[in-house]
């Protein structure tokens, strides 16, 4: 009697069509395409001459030669470095001082301050820059007028259109990022390391120097690098404050190269490649330091009791610093926007101007179909982008965290790669790619959406990884033992458990999408604007009142989104990923 | 040598609630003695230690060392911890990961008010590393030491300045069981050799019994009993101490007769009639709990020949073999009594067994009626 062994090949076929591999395969292709193709194409293009009707493009180094033999380029490089160093050190100094005061001293209102510290990060760069122009430009700056009329300065003391102005605005705006990173570093440190130094007879300052700062060293370097990379990518501040004063950095140089006629795509690519080299170098070193920093991990598994230094009467000073900082970074910028939004024509605050308050600005904004369209566009694209990013990165993250598939690190690196693309560089590479391979999306919203998904994929990945690591492998295995297939396990066990983290990440991506300017500005076409582009155009047209009204509404909308995000995070016990 | 008088500490928790961590804590430690603060987590023992160290500022009380007042709430006096000159070992060891073994140990000599020449530093650090058997690792990264070695380095660092007071905050709790037992002897040896006054904080009763000259058992911020290890173990003052220090059987009973002449009292209990030592504060009719340690409960298969009447018949309910001892759970009616006996006892589960304990090994506590 022979038993047929027919089921074997059939089962084999089933394994081959396993939905697991289908889903993973699709994600792999999508991620690889998003992260690698346009960028690789841009690098290739930077070695080619422009294709014209009568001459095909040929290999050339001319773009690089033009770009790097020009003495202007050296100056641009110098400016970029000076600006990025200045801004990152300013942000770091402010952020670290505040983090120390907040974490290690008994300054009153610390908790409130921590909660408020996220607000400046919500305000888009373009609005923060415009607000500071209204505060400190030589002609219309509020602070200059106050200084001149109250303190008798002859000339306006502040000039925001300068390298120092740029450093000030950018450094101040990103100091909360430094604050959050350094707060995390202080929190991760076992306070008994400091206490044992004090018990050894060491003074407070000596302990700070020989123990606290030394232990925080990897975190310090990583923070400064993060800030530096971010500052060198910064587009809004150099464009709004630097260009009027003739100060060019890489980002504004790329923008100008594309916006002259005819567009210098090769030149823009050459600049982009150098910028990319700098940012990837920075992020690479930062990742290396974070990895080697494990020797400094001081976690013992037991919760640290928070101990704070009693500052005595110095607390008045530190509280004062908190208040002044909050004034400079939130209250003054918001107030100046609010004020100008209530004017007919922009005028500095005075009793007389107070009598001319009007809501015309708001009427204009709410009555303009162009603006309302842009708001609608921004919102649907943000929702679409956040949804795609979170689902895509959930699968990537599952592969990376939960499986042992060989080469999964490659997937992780690929999905994280867009992190090193400055928004403008991403815009350039996507633009060049879809200009060359015209599949009909150039000049539509789809190309902007594509840029958003590429750019924010690493953010989604980070949110998902944090939650995914917390899901124990046994939960999955027990579902599998109960007889569930991979797709069922993924949709019924993994996704629901990831939900809180995904929701928080979804809202975060939504917020950054709505604020996005530097990629959109190269990819939009007239009549198909998003909010940040409308703000940019209003600024270019000098419509300050309407701009301010829109800004006020915009900031309030973002605040509501963040409050919702935090409420969700709190309800589900998600820790802020920063 | 160390005098703590009427210490009160409170702090505001994360939720803004005022928590009283230590309430009216007072004790004295003579020179050269090892004094242990023992209690469950949250009992205020660490807070008390940190107040002595100066890492925490009590709200009330006085702390004196060798006649020098370091803290006094009335005189508004507070010596900062770096001026107190004590050595301290933390639960997490707090070994600085960015320094070598030598640098960790030499740090106190470099930063203190007293200045030392490099030669002196080298000589003294090497001597102290020698005493904890770490001299051969002196140029190693401190993070490359094992847990036990890190613990010894922390001890060396605390001892290098030859402090007049050594503070140990659960120093052995992060070690595995085998190493912990070994280190217990080490700590005891070093403390006795150097004759250094030591305050030791632990939640491990075996550690406290093994090391201390004197123990203070703490509960909910207060010291509930002070005494030598033997006193604490054999004559606990209340059920909390009895229960916390070692395993114990509690038997509910009430006093039926007092025989002052025989130095005995007769009680009617849940396991039958029990005799316990005479207690002058007790009266007939008092509800009490009888406490008897499992190692004082003896078992035999034959009727025991003992000069007292605390003899009972029971059924073997469960046995747990622990290697050097055997734990029997014996059922007397509904009540289960734990007996710790030599592992040679072979009575199988379900069999009857005789159980007896000497009245002199019983302690009674009055039950507070609610």
Commentary on this structure:
The complex is a heterodimer of chains A (578) and B (370). Chain A has 578 residues and is mainly alpha-helical. Chain A is 74% helix and 0% strand. Chain A contains 27 helices and no strands. The longest helix of chain A is centred in the first third of the chain and has 34 residues. The radius of gyration of chain A is 26 Å and the shape is globular. Chain B has 370 residues and is α+β, with helices and mostly antiparallel strands. Chain B folds into 2 domains: 243 residues, P-loop containing nucleotide triphosphate hydrolases (Rossmann fold, 3-Layer(aba) Sandwich); 118 residues, OB fold (Dihydrolipoamide Acetyltransferase, E2P) (Beta Barrel). Chain B has a 6-stranded mixed beta sheet with strand order 7-8-9-3-10-11, sandwiched between helices. Chain B has a 5-stranded antiparallel beta sheet with strand order 2-1-4-5-6, with helices on one face. In chain B, β5 and β6 form a beta hairpin. The longest helix of chain B has 18 residues. The two termini of chain B are 43 Å apart. The chains are: A mainly alpha (578), B alpha+beta (370). Chains A and B meet through α10 and α11 of A and α2 and α4 of B.
How many runs of DSSP E, i.e. beta strands of chain B?
Answer: 21
Quick one: how many beta strands of chain A? 0
Distance between the termini of chain A: 68 Å
Find the CATH superfamily of the largest domain in chain A. Answer: MetI-like
Number of helices of chain B: 8
Q: What spatial form of chain A do the alpha-carbon principal axes imply?
A: globular
Q: Largest interface, per-chain counts?
A: A-B, 27 and 33 residues
Task: Give me the CATH fold name of the largest domain in chain A.
Answer: MetI-like fold
Structural class by SSE content of chain A = mainly alpha
Annotated CATH architecture of the largest domain in chain A: Orthogonal Bundle
Write down the domain tally of chain B: 2
Tell me about the largest β-sheet of chain A: none
> What is the annotated CATH architecture of the largest domain in chain B?
3-Layer(aba) Sandwich
Strand content of chain B: 35-45%
- Output the number of helix runs of chain A: 27
Order of helices and strands of chain B: EEEHEEEEHHHEHEHEEHHEEEEEEEEEE
CATH class of the largest domain in chain A: Mainly Alpha
Show unreliable segments of chain B. Answer: none
| C-alpha-based Rg of chain B, rounded | 25 Å
Strand content of chain A: under 5%
Average of the residue pLDDT scores of chain A: 82
């Amino acid at each position: 009697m022979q038993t047929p062994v027919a089921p074997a090949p059939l089962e084999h076929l089933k394994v081959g069509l396993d939905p697991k591999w289908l889903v993973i395969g699709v994600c792999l292709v999508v991620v690889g395409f998003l992260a690698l193709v346009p960028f690789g194409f841009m690098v290739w293009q930077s070695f080619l001459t422009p294709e014209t009707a009568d001459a095909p493009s040929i290999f050339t180094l001319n773009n690089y030669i033009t770009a790097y033999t020009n003495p202007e380029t050296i100056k641009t490089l110098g400016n970029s470095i000076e600006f990025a160093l200045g801004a990152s050190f300013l942000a770091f100094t402010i952020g670290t001082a505040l983090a120390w005061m907040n974490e290690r001293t008994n300054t009153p209102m610390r908790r409130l301050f921590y909660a408020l510290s996220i607000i400046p990060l919500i305000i888009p760069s373009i609005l923060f820059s415009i607000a500071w122009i209204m505060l400190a430009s030589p002609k219309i700056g509020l602070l200059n007028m106050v200084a001149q009329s109250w303190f008798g300065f002859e000339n306006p003391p502040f000039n925001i259109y300068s390298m120092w102005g740029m450093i000030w605005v950018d450094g101040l705006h990103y100091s909360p990022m430094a604050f959050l990173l350094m707060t995390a570093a202080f929190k991760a440190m076992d306070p008994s390391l400091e206490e044992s130094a004090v018990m050894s007879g060491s003074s407070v300052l000596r302990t700070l120097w020989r123990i606290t700062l030394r232990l925080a060293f990897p975190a310090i370097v990583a923070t400064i690098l993060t800030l530096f990379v971010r500052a060198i990518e910064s587009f809004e501040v150099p464009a709004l404050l630097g260009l009027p004063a003739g100060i060019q950095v890489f980002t504004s140089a790329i923008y100008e190269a594309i916006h002259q006629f005819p567009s210098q795509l090769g030149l823009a690519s050459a600049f982009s490649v150098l910028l990319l080299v700098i940012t990837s170098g920075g992020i690479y070193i930062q990742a290396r330091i974070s990895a080697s920093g494990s020797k400094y991990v001081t976690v013992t598994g037991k919760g640290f009791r928070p101990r704070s230094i009693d500052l005595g009467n110095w607390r008045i000073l530190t509280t004062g610093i908190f208040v002044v900082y909050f004034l400079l970074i939130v209250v003054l910028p918001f107030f100046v926007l609010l004020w100008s939004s209530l004017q007919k024509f922009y005028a500095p605050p005075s009793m007389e101007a107070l009598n001319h308050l009007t809501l015309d600005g708001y009427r204009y904004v709410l009555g303009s179909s162009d603006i309302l369209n842009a708001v609608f566009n921004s919102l649907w694209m943000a929702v679409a982008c956040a949804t795609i990013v979170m689902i895509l990165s959930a699968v990537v993250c599952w592969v990376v965290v939960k499986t042992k598939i060989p080469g999964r690190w490659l997937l992780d690196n690929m999905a994280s790669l867009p992190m090193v693309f400055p928004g403008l560089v991403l815009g350039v590479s996507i633009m060049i790619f879809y200009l060359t391979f015209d599949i009909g999306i150039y000049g539509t919203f789809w190309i902007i959406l594509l840029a958003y998904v590429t750019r924010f994929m690493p953010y989604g990945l980070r949110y998902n990884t944090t939650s995914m690591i917390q899901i124990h492998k046994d939960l999955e295995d027990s579902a599998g033992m109960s007889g569930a297939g991979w797709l069922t396990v993924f949709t019924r066990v993994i996704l629901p458990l990831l939900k809180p983290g995904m929701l928080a990440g979804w809202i975060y991506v939504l917020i950054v999408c709505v604020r996005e300017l530097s990629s959109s500005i190269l990819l939009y076409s007239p009549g198909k604007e998003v909010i940040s582009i409308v703000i940019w155009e209003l600024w270019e047209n000098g419509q300050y009142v309407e701009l301010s009204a829109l800004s006020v509404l915009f900031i309030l909308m973002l605040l509501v989104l963040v409050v919702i995000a935090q409420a969700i995070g709190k309800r589900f016990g998600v820790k802020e990923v920063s | 040598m160390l005098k703590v008088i009427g210490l009160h500490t409170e702090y505001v928790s994360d939720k803004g609630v005022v928590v009283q961590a230590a309430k009216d804590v007072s004790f004295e430690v003579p020179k050269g003695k090892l004094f242990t603060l023992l209690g469950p987590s949250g009992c205020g023992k660490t807070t008390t230690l940190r107040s002595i160290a100066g890492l925490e500022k009590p709200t009330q009380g006085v702390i004196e060392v060798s006649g020098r007042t370091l803290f006094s709430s009335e005189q508004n006096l507070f010596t900062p911890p770096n001026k107190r000159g004590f050595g301290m070992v933390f639960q997490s060891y707090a070994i600085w990961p960015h320094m070598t073994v030598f640098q960790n140990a030499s740090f106190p000599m470099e930063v203190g008010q007293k200045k030392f020449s490099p030669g002196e530093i080298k000589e003294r650090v090497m001597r102290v590393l020698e005493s904890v058997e770490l001299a051969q690792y002196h140029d190693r990264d401190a993070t490359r030491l094992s847990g036990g070695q890190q613990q010894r380095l922390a001890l060396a660092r605390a001892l290098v300045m030859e402090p007049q007071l050594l503070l140990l905050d659960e120093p052995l709790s992060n070690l595995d069981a085998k190493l912990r037992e070994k280190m217990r002897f080490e700590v005891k040896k070093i403390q006795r050799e150097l004759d250094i006054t030591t305050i030791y904080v632990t939640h491990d009763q075996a550690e406290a019994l093994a090391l201390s000259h004197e123990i203070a058992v703490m509960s909910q911020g207060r010291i509930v009993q002070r005494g030598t290890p033997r006193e604490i173990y054999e004559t606990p003052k209340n059920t909390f101490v009895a229960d916390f220090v070692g395993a114990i059987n509690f038997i509910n009973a009430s006093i039926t007769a007092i025989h002052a002449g025989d130095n005995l009292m007769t009680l009617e209990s849940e396991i039958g009639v029990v005799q316990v030592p005479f207690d002058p504060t007790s009266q007939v009719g008092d509800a009490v709990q009888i406490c008897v340690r499992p190692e004082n409960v003896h078992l035999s298969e034959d009727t025991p020949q003992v000069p007292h009447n605390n003899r009972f018949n029971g059924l073997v309910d469960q046995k747990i073999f622990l290697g050097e001892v055997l734990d029997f759970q014996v059922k007397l009616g509904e009540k289960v009594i734990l007996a710790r006996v030599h592992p040679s006892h072979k009575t199988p589960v379900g069999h009857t067994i005789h159980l007896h304990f000497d009245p002199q090994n019983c302690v009674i506590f009055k039950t507070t009626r609610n």
